[in-house]
Amino acid sequence: MKTVVISRSEQLLENGGRRQFLKVLGMGGAIVLMPSMLASCSNDDNNGGGDGGVTGPNSGKAVVIDFAKGDTAVLQFAYALEQLEADFYTKVVANFSGSDIPASEQTILGDIKNHEVIHREAFKVLLGTANDFTLTPTYGSLNFKSRTAVLAASRDFEDLGVSAYNGAAQYLADVNNLGLAGKIVSVEARHASAIRDLINPKRSGVAGFSPTPFDDVFSPGKVRAAAQNFIVEMVQFSNAPTTFVQGPNGNG
Hints:
The chain is mainly alpha-helical. It has a single domain, classed as Ferritin, core subunit, four-helix bundle (Ferritin). It contains seven helices and four strands. The chain has helices spanning 17-26, 35-38, 71-94, 103-127, 147-168, 175-199, 220-228; strands at 3-6, 30-33, 62-66, 234-238. A two-stranded parallel ribbon has the order 1-2. Helix 1 (17-26) links the parallel strand 1 and strand 2 (30-33). Helix 4 (103-127) runs antiparallel to helix 6 (175-199) and helix 5 (147-168) runs antiparallel to helix 6. The longest helix is centred in the middle third of the chain and has 25 residues, at 103-127. The protein is globular and about 45 Å long. The relative contact order is 0.17. The model is unreliable at 24-28 and 40-46 (pLDDT under 50).
């Protein structure tokens, strides 16, 4: 099994580093994040309950994503979603102690957390000066000590991420950005599959598995509305796309 060691976020975009780490993830390899890479991750233990004083969703300052900026806006939107996912899994890992999540599942969730941190940092570096916003996630009364609650939330976040990338890809003009989005969404889809297998181990045709052969394809507006429930800042679009090509499920 191949291992890639990531010590700083810039490494993701150097000498094929981005391609290497995505290839390794796809092959089931290991990604090792050095302490310097994880320094920006919160390790705050909120004793398993919700947000520990963070205000409610859609109550903070406005964060505006201007789609007149083309690919930059799409990457900013992806960066926003990856901030949310990375924060969620960081809190999940911080609350392992005293939870009812077994060690084997803690390993899987810890790996997913590392992937999401890498995704977030990759977009942060790729955007450069356009990465000028930091979101404050909020989870209400979500019990991070509860396996059932954590896996249900994880499934929802991963599904939203997959549908978001699927829908936003049509607005990317640069083939390199499109390729990156395609590789990351494949990792997110593997996360969604892994979480569903934890909820219903090695079973098909049961509630919780996808009822259709195709992933959802959601418009940026639909994704924003869903994600806003977990973000304090008011995420707003300027010059939002006026056209959207539906996916096979027709529910975007």
